[in-house]
Amino acid sequence: MIDLYFIGIGMGNPDHLTRQAIAELQTADVILIPHKGAQKSDLADLRKTICEKCLEPIPPLVYFDLPKRDSKTKTYLEGVVDWHSAIAKTWQDTLHRTLPNGGKAALMIWGDPSLYDSSLRIAQRLNPRKAAIRITVVPGLTSVQLLTAAHAIPLNALGAAVTYTTGRNLANHGWPDKCESLVVMLDGQTAFDRLDPDAFEIWWGAFLGMPEQILISGRLSSCCEEIKTTRQRARETHGWIMDTYLLRPVP
Fold first, then answer.
1. Residue finishing a domain among 123, 138, 153
2. By Cβ atoms counted within 10 A, which residue in 51, 53, 180, 186 is the most buried?
3. d(Cα 102, Cα 130) in Å, to the nearest integer?
4. Can you count the helices (H) and strands (E) in the chain?
5. Is the domain of 174 the same as that of 209?
């Protein structure tokens, strides 16, 4: 049996890890670190830095290449489904090659494994006859928690609900009916610029909780272009960006 631990690591700041997360990493037989291509090498480096700052000694680090999503498939969802299957196979092959007699492996997940991360869905694709892999989740800080803390604001309006969505959904369907506070994640196309700029306030953040953290807030009419320009510049500088934002209608 192989025990695979998904460890939530917040945005990659070693201080974001819980004591449980550090303990599970420390007792792992191997720690898996995915490569996502040269432009995102910082993501692998951040995982290595966490190990160097939090663990003594450091368990063996096993690097593997993460399959790329085929953007030429008929639909976005079809591409994601095929991509997830390829990732599951890569995990399974890497685990059985690295731990042929069983053991404990840890995989660090940005934010929390339960919130807008597909690791748990991918794990369901592991072949139950060949895998013999048991999954355990260690929760972590989410970008939403870090966003509201950085801006020093509550997540919800008084007595009101909160809706979570993606940039793709906001772009395709617009503002959700009866929504009072909207958290938007995974928005590579800055879908907020399709909204009435005078009707909404935004609290935006990138690299939350990290030394390079960027925060912008205000009415969309006054900061929409600033966010788009700042986001593009940061992406060019780092080769990647992790950002999220909260929207509310102007009272």
1. 138
2. 51
3. 13
4. 8, 10
5. yes
3-state class (DSSP) for residue 104: strand
Whole-number pLDDT of residue 75: 84
Contact status, residue 188 vs residue 167, Cβ threshold 8 Å: yes
Could you read off the pLDDT of 198-225 as tens digits, one per residue? 999 999 999 999 999 999 999 999 999 9
Q: Helix %, strand %, coil % for the chain, to 5?
A: 40, 25, 35
Contacts 24+ apart (CB under 8 A), 236-240: 238/42, 238/207, 238/212, 239/39, 239/40, 239/41, 239/42, 240/39, 240/40, 240/42, 240/43
Q: Which domain holds residue 11?
A: 2-138
Distance CA 155, CA 219 (A): 17
How many residues can be counted in the chain? 251
Q: Indicate if 105 and 173 belong to the same structural domain.
A: no
The count of structural domains within the chain is 2
Q: What is the pLDDT of residues 137-193, one digit of tens each?
A: 999 999 999 999 999 999 999 999 999 999 999 999 999 999 999 999 999 999 999
Q: Are residues 165 and 212 in the same domain?
A: yes
| Alpha-carbon span 172 to 138, nearest angstrom | 33
Per DSSP, the three-state class of 27 is coil
Q: Which two tokens stand for residue 81?
A: 């489904």
Global confidence as pTM: 0.90
Q: What is the CATH number of the domain that holds 232?
A: 3.30.950.10
d(CA 218, CA 203): 7
Tokens of 96: 């059985």
